[in-house]
Specification:
- Its main location: membrane.
- Keywords: Membrane, Transmembrane, Transmembrane helix.
- The protein contains 13 helices and no strands.
- α1 packs across α10 and α7 packs across α9.
- The C terminus is likely disordered.
Amino acid sequence: MSNTTSDLVQKLNIATYWIDQIYPLLQIAFGTFGNVFNIIIFSRRALRSNPCSLYFLVGSIDNCVVIGIGICSRYLASSWYWDPSATNIVLCKLRNFVIYSSLTLALCFFAPIISCILPIVLMSIFGILMILNVRRVHNQVGRHINNARNERLHSNDRQLAMMLLFQILITTLISTPYFALAIYNAVAIVMFRYKLSPSELASYNFANNLFRLLHYTNPVITFYIYTLTGPKFRVEMKHCIQHGLKSVLTAIGLVRYLPLRARQVLFGENQVMNTINIISLSQSRRRGNGVHPTQQKTTMSMTPVA
């Protein structure tokens, strides 16, 4: 093996190592934050009555499980050489159930292909059926409610359907490289027993590791897809942030130190103006009942000294 090939293999191995060290941490951090936010938003009263919201809510809970059991445990095992499933019988059985299903055992070297195609197909089928069912229900009850409310419901359904469509599209794009490499592995390496050279093996390991991590980004990015594609989702996210900041600032007593504009954003225009009017009225009453400091000083200066 030449020096150039040896240098290439070494650089690819180093790149693979650092990708394994850094990328899963970003997946765990951003995925946990985003899916917890999804659960909070889709549990709000404005969205939880919609069947599409129930689908997104269940999907976010499932994504948290995938991040906790799949990505996190794999990162601990590969980077820190600590596998919780090796010492905990419950985690061991749960992980084996998630990873090694009966279909995967029957078609072991086609498992990556199935893991790429099956979620997309199921997501598309159930998503289309869910949207058709929601439209059918709304058409049945549409004549019993006013036009404004009916239009609002249809607008929410269109937004949620658009969010689902973009999720399927991005999931397909992200999973395609891993799917293509899995086909190459199944056909060339497994079936025809093609032997890779050291440089080809290093390139294959690098690509396989990168595309696998990219494939496992699907449960991580749903929150960011919904934020970019759903106006209603952004409105509810803004309300959640406002409510959280208001609760924290009220609890620690910093609300009175905020500028007027910031209080208007947090509490709303009417509530802030009512608060200001109440404070102004109470101050006016205190001034009306008391003696003004200037008048008190003038009175004291005019009082003759005995």
